[in-house]
Amino acid sequence: MSKAIENLQTAQHRAMVGRPKVGGFPYLAETLRRAGVLRNLWFLPACQSIYLTADGPVVSLATPLISGTDDVPTFNREALIAALRTDQAGNSTFPEFLAASWRAGVVRYDVDFKARRVAYYGCNSEEYIEDYPAVEIE
User: Fold this and answer.
1) Is residue 136 part of a domain?
2) 45-98: per-residue pLDDT in tens?
3) Positive or negative, the Cα torsion across 25, 21, 64, 54?
4) Angle between helical axes of 24-34 and 3-18 (0-180°, round to 10)
5) Helix axes 77-88, 94-103, angle to 10 degrees
6) Number of structural domains, the chain?
7) Is 0.85 topped by the overall pTM?
8) For the chain, which terminus, N or C, has the lower number of CB atoms within 10 Å?
9) Between the CA of residue 19 and those of 11, 46, 69, what are the distances in Å?
């Protein structure tokens, strides 16, 4: 196992243990940022995630949201914002958030841990950008 993978997995575990139910993403993001993760690129519906870290890039594959061939949903900003607010309130799991984002037409998103910003993209260059708050971690 590389140093990059070990460091990422340790940070992810630390974040999951201490993460609050409401507003958990900023806590996770700050934990990853402190561990040297610079960016996180998600590709839906494949659920492929690339972490750009100070120790090197790491790829992670989760269970895809679809199988076979399917139509890409039309980008729906309001549906995406609703999915975000549901997740931020602690009322969805991460897989549920990914599925709701896909249904809202998100094909990828880019988390910039330094800027504390997430950009969500549709397949026709649509985008929605949202900043997230800084949090303190003990």
Assistant:
1) no
2) 999 999 999 999 999 999 999 999 999 999 999 999 999 999 999 899 999 999
3) positive
4) 150
5) 170
6) 1
7) yes
8) C
9) 12, 25, 36
